[in-house]
User: What shape does this take?
Amino acid sequence: MARYEIRALLQGDEAELHRVAKHLNSVNLPNDRARIEEIVDLSYRSFAGLVKAKSEREYVFVLVDREKDVIIGTSMILAQLGRRGAPYIYFDVIDEEKYSATIDKHFHHTILRIGYSYDGPTEIGGLVMDPAYRGDRLGTVISYVRFLYLGAHRDLFKDEVVAELLPPLEADGTSHLWEALGRKFTDMSYAEADLLSKKNKEFIKGLFPEGVIYASVLAPDAQAVIGKVGAQTKGVEKLLRRIGFRYAHRVDPFDGGPHFSATMDEIEPVRETQRATHWVPLGSDSVVRKALVAIEMDVPPFFRAVPASVSIPLDRESPVEIAQDAIDHLGLREGREIIVTPYTDDPRRIPPPTTSNRGFLPRG
Assistant: This one.
């Protein structure tokens, strides 16, 4: 039986989820017991199909060490950013060139322009791992489960998917961009504004300047973080770029963290996700890759997945082959529908070209 399992967040997980949240204390997963209880309740109702509005659904997945019966990682999908009263807010990052022939001066400017959407994209976030369990690709596993769920339930989500990455921050959590810009218009600390924005974004729309802001008038350390990825999320950036995401030239209005985006069809693991009722035990001479194998049910825990060795046919007509330990762990019986998403490359596939016109080059 597999040691690690991914399932939906359930009522009764509050204490364990709070323990994991302390490792990052992000807006999506804060170190706040009251907020944790709200997150558990909303996720439970989302998986149960009790939240009708797409803009209010949040799905939280937990990675469980079954030997110790503890939650060791989380990830989440916010079905839609932006709704009436709580828009998706961002800065567009625009490049502008200026030249004067009279004095022969040429300048390149970065411009920030605030934007709002009340019918925005789906967001993937909430990725947290217990530091004691980093390694063995467990972070990849809990990250990829979101793409499995997106691929299996496209109708529940928007076609555009975004990920908001943390920028470089100071050791105490200070954001240079916020100090240079946001604090001057709100008279709030970065932590205060970040926390308030999760529940109420009116103050941003009411107090932030409209029109454009020339970054060149900001302090150099504030300019330096716009659209940059912090050291703690470099690995996430690498994964996102590899599977089809690109820098969207949008950043968080608080800290300048970059937004990466892709459509469903551009995300490789979403494209590769498939449902199957025709499966067999893994053969001894099969071409093997690692994948998440999941099942769903109408009652708690609603969703269960395990990492497994599989062989996926190229034609999608032949049966999917699954390692016996995954079959046993999930209690699979003939005809039971499964969902499969690979998270390692197929050695039979021709690799994509190394060059692209999609702007995937790292920033700095």
Notes: The two ends are 44 Å apart (CA to CA). Residues 353-364 have pLDDT under 50 and may be disordered. The first helix runs from residue 14 to 21.
